[in-house]
Design a protein that fits this description.
By secondary structure, the protein is of the alpha+beta class. Helix content is about 25%, strand content about 30%. The chain binds fe (ii) ion. The site of fe (ii) ion has 6 residues, from helix 5. Its EC number is 1.14.15.7.
Amino acid sequence: MSELARTLPASWYCSSPLYQLERRAVFLKSWYLLGPVTRFQDVGEKVEYEIAQQAILAYRTSGDEPFPAPEEIEVICAKTEQPLRHHVTPTGLIFATVSDEAPSFHEYFPDLEPLLQRVDFTKRPYRRSINYEGRFNWKTMVDGYQECLHCQYTHPSFSVYYPPTFYEVHNHQNFSQHIADPKKPDDGLFLYFFPNCTLNVYGGGMSSFRVCPTENPNVTRMEFDYYHIKSGDEFEEYFKFVRQVAMEDYELCEKAQDNLATGVYSEGILNPMKENGVACF
Ligand SMILES: [Fe+2]
């Protein structure tokens, strides 16, 4: 049994000193998905992000095409207004750092861009964002995203489309790909980017969310951005479906956090097949 990966200790999900260590050792040294270039349509309109108490602003500097070219995107630190390193992928996703301590984009994600090639991220216009706080640690939500053992029980509507029987997670350096049905590998693109971003593309829709730690290790801010080929009823139908799944995860995380905080459970082993994504995280 010694070769099986184990969960993190429960106390790590409730500890302020551990979070301060995570900030320095992980969050200041990582890359974050801000969104596709279409998120930054209007020149000068600043979109604010806050990752581990580092506020950053991203915006379009110039141009009048429907969406900005890579050189028309700027990302700055909100406090110092100094530019931050960012990278626009060939198919239109913007990633950024929050400090100078991160390695280069290609060192951080050496094999990500070939996988992103199959989606043109400029084809799904930005529709809506939604943010709120939850009573759970940021790692509680990431643990849940990285496995689908909970899906059949927690997401009855999602499981109709993607039966969890086939679900696989393929781990790469600093990201994981979720494959809902190996027989249809091109049906959707579901990615987790270490430490706290996701991208979910399927049908005409696309969503991305950031699991943002607050200074309280028991509270996390969830930030969702939604995109869709269509506006109006078709978008609203998609939005209703994905919000339902998100609220099911939210409730599950609050309950899991209660259990982590009671002090009864410390740690356990992970299923090597079904929880390989959690082990990688
Ligand atoms: Fe879930």
